[in-house]
Automatic annotation (TrEMBL):
Name used for this protein in its record: Uncharacterized protein
Organism: Roseitalea porphyridii
Transmembrane segments: 20-38, 69-88
Keyword presence, Transmembrane helix: yes
Keywords carried by this UniProt record: Membrane, Transmembrane, Transmembrane helix
Top-level division of the source organism's lineage: Bacteria
Length: 105
């Protein structure tokens, strides 16, 4: 089991662990963009993924030893993307559907 622990320590210290997580996020986005065709759903997916990527970039920056300014920048970007996602999600949920056309005699 010591070999597995050493390997995990090595990929964490090099930032590769965060890069793997980022690759998984991008693959997940590609899959969901293929599945969901509605513009509102796609928009929230893109901003949700951007938020997650920014958080993973902050993690990677911390793991490889970047300074607080770089880490704070990525965290701020993640927060901005999260707020944008919430805004688009709020707009999608609060839209009232148009009433069906009334029958004409």
């Amino acid at each position: 089991m010591d070999g597995l622990t050493d390997w995990l320590d090595a990929i964490a210290a090099s930032g590769r662990l965060a890069e793997i997580a980022m690759a998984v996020l991008v693959a997940e986005l590609a899959l969901f963009l293929f599945v969901y065709r509605a513009p509102a759903a796609r928009r929230t997916l893109v901003f949700n993924t951007a938020s997650g990527l920014a958080l993973m970039a902050a993690l990677r920056a911390a793991l490889i030893g970047h300074g607080a300014l770089v880490i704070a920048g990525f965290l701020s970007l993640g927060f901005a993307m999260h707020l944008a996602e919430l805004w688009f999600r709020h707009r999608a949920f609060t839209k009232t559907p148009e009433p069906p056309p009334s029958p004409r005699d």
